[in-house]
Amino acid sequence: MKVRLLAAMVVALSGTAARAADPRYPDWPCTQAKVPEISLAAVWAGPPLDDVQNKWKDDAKVSALVAKLSARKTPLDEAEKSVKEFLASSADKTANAKLLFAGLFDTLNAQRFQVMNGLERVSRKQREAADKIREETLQLHALQGATPRDEAKVEALGNELIWKTRIFEDRNKVVRFVCEVPTAIDQRLFALGRVIQQEME
Questions:
Q1: Is the pLDDT of residue 147 over 50?
Q2: CB neighbour list of residue 88: distance below 8 Å, 6 or more residues apart
Q3: 4 CB-contact burial (10 Å; exposed 0-12 / middle 13-18 / buried 19+)
Q4: Which residue of 20, 37, 64, 141 is 20 to 30 Å from 108, comparing CA positions?
């Protein structure tokens, strides 16, 4: 019974581990298309940011606000309120708006890059784990068909396979959850960019 269950699991693993939809990104495990970087034009229709690139890091107030706004634990409505308050109290609203968005763009793009790299790293490990489980399932079948049959070895390998399969499935659940993060980052950047632009007008 255990072995039949394992065989079914291994068939499922095969599909899960080799799921890349886009041949350019063979390790990308998500159903969402991989977009390596957020395009500035897709999230910002305000004035050019060329003159403020990296300067936001030199402004302690802007840097602190960027850190707060880009943290996923900060609710979006709270982040939007903070943007409005900051810009309302700014002497040079346009300059500070540009600095703030440049900081958010850099920070959220970097966060997104880290999350995507992590997903691809886990995907490679999952593929290796699926190969190992398939290999050990074949070993288990061989042990079961051997004469005389070593029940202790059959039991030990069967239990190990069930454990490894469980870990594999748990990791897959985490991956599915984390696959939503890049999209959430895109949405946050777009929403905050829109508020910053509205406050500049």
A1: yes
A2: 199
A3: exposed
A4: 20
DSSP 45: -
Q: Is the pLDDT of residue 12 over 60?
A: no
User: What digits encode the pLDDT tens for the residues 73-125?
Assistant: 999 999 999 999 999 998 899 999 999 999 999 999 999 999 999 999 999 99
**Rounded to whole angstroms, how far apart are CA atoms 164 and 139?**
15
- Quote the CA–CA distance of 126 and 143 in Å, as a whole number: 25
Mean pLDDT for 16-40 is 80
How far apart CA 64 and CA 62 sit, in angstroms, is 5
28 exposed, middle or buried (CB, 10 Å; 0-12, 13-18, 19+)? buried
Whether the CA torsion 50, 52, 55, 57 is positive or negative: it is: negative
